[in-house]
Amino acid sequence: MSHLSRTLPIKRAAHVYLVRDGELLLVEERMDDGSIFYGLPGGKANPGESLADAAVRQVAVETGLTVTDLRFVSLLEGEMLTGTRNECYANFGRFTATFHGDLDPTDPEVVGVKWVPFAQVEGLIRYGPPPEVEERNPLIWVPTRDFLRGEARTYYPI
């Protein structure tokens, strides 16, 4: 029997490309298996919270930096992790911003924050089996690769 309609939970998240002298800021998080995962600062939006507000809040917690003048870069949208218990419809916003302050993460999951030269960013990416970490899906990194090359599109179906 085919399902004509189904309800998927919506996952909304925002991440920010923070750039300084040809380097991109990445956060280091420890996964359940003890490995280190590198990702963009940002994260899930709370119910009723805009993606922009989520970006500002999450960057502050994960890096200690205050971001201002948020500028929209890309929207990633589509079904993710189909057929798993983490199946969802994703709305991910990507922004750039002006920032100030000192690197001082307060998120207990963040073990480090690191400025990485553009040329080294893709070498840090590890793709893992979903549903462990959605951000390890290669499609999530295509917009970052494009951004680093100066070729970001405004919309990415995922």
Automatic annotation (TrEMBL):
SUPFAM superfamilies for this protein: Nudix
Organism of provenance: Deinococcus aluminii
One protein family per Pfam: NUDIX
Full protein name: Nudix hydrolase domain-containing protein
Swiss-Prot/TrEMBL keywords: Hydrolase
Cofactor(s), names only, from the UniProt record: Mg(2+)
PROSITE patterns: NUDIX (PS51462)
Domain Nudix hydrolase: 9-138
Keyword Glycoprotein tagged: no
Organism taxonomic ancestry: Bacteria, Thermotogati, Deinococcota, Deinococci, Deinococcales
InterPro entries tied to this protein: NUDIX_hydrolase-like_dom_sf (IPR015797), NUDIX_hydrolase_dom (IPR000086)
